[in-house]
Amino acid sequence: MQLPIDQVRAAFPALALADDGEPRGYFDAPAGTQVARRVIDAMGHVMVQACANDGGLFRTSVTTGVIVESAIASAAAFFNCGDDEVIFGLNTTSLFFQMAPLIAHDWRAGDNILLTRMDHDANVSPWLQAAAARGVEVRFLEWDRESFALKLETLPDLIDARTRAVAVGHASNFLGTINDVAAVCAAARAVGAVSIVDAVQSAPHMALDVAAIGCDLMAASAYKFFGPHAAILFVSRRLQAIIPPLKVRPSADVMPTRLAPGTPAFEAMAGTAAAIDHLAWLGEAAGTMSAAQPLRQRLVAGLAAAQAHETDLMRQFLAGLSDVPGVALHGIANPNRLHERVATFTFELAGKSSADVAAALAARNMFVWHGYYYAWEPAGVLGVKERGAVRVGFTHYNSAAEVDALLGALAGIARGG
Ligand SMILES: Cc1ncc(COP(=O)(O)O)c(C=O)c1O
């Protein structure tokens, strides 16, 4: 299976842009991806054809209701869950902040929660604040500095009968490591703790499956998977049954209004559904799936095609990076362990600040991040919060030629260019 890269790139209007004849190199996907044309079209369509609140009897309102239903069905296929287990929100951070006090409502002194030193702070601070408000102990699952993997063997020492919640990231936005979240959630479930998975960095690269992972909460941000600025949240029925609602009195005590107060961004819902359609289309583009199959099946095939393409890019990048003088990579470099990482690479160049490297690449119209990207805990472990590190990310729309151009630029910068 091979992604037809030119056809895939043509699906993104922004990829054709150039500035003063210099094409844009988008290597900033871990912070936000470019938007598929069908997403832009879907959002425009909603704002022209169905610009109304839902619940009314007139044409535009009825159409809005249909859009909501279909967006929820798409998000449910994305997570592999029921339509009554999904809500939409502004972003992952605010969805976790929204849920934290509800989940913590019955925590008591003597209880504990488990977080990790690998997570983005969106999956740390909401739970830290809830724990502080309820007087609950906070424990941390560490990661190994050699293997860049969570120390899962320490779970039995960290989780006990008083553990109320366990929050873990699916893929790290700093190290790129894919974590065995099913193992963490199984350990949480065994003691009746709520299990929370931040899938923001895995969602653009692999099919999510809450049924296989066994979590209670999972979030993903659409602007990281080729859609608009919005996020989706899976809330298991088990969790719904034990948390209070977050709603105004007139709204129905059923999902999604039970946990998603106020008027949603209908256009962002339509855009998110279109981004999910784009991912499903990748399987057709690769020739591994027919358009007639159910959305979930097409999504799994589409993301498998994306993953295969990105694995090639990872292999190419790692091989080239080893020839760049003075590079220190903070993440898995072993080509036999590529299935344990996403294509997010954080590194430092000897003698150069991360801002200098990012600026030198920006001067070549190549877009990369520097700093620590809110990965407060991992950056603290590595001691790079002050000086930061460079982060490049590849996704299915990046080409081998772009990776070559980036490697060439990095080699030039490392040699003083
Ligand atoms: C792993 C991870 N979790 C959460 C977030 C926060 O997402 P949002 O901006 O949707 O709140 C990010 C953003 O970079 C992230 O990388």
Largest sheet: 7 strands, mixed
Q: In angstroms, what is the radius of gyration?
A: 21 Å
Structural class by helix and strand composition: alpha/beta
Strand order of the largest sheet: 4-10-9-8-7-5-6
Return the domain count: 2
Termini distance?
A: 39 Å
Mean pLDDT metric: 97
Q: What is the H level of CATH, i.e. the homologous superfamily of the largest domain?
A: Type I PLP-dependent aspartate aminotransferase-like (Major domain)
Number of strands: 15
Assembly state of the chains shown = single chain
Number of helices in the DSSP assignment: 14
Low-confidence stretches: none
SSE string: HEEEHHEHEHEHEHEHEEHHHEEHEEHEH
Overall form: globular
Considering DSSP H and I runs of 4 or more, what fraction of the residues is helical?
25-40%
CATH architecture verdict of the largest domain: 3-Layer(aba) Sandwich
Q: Give the strand content.
A: 5-15%
Return the CATH class of the largest domain.
Alpha Beta
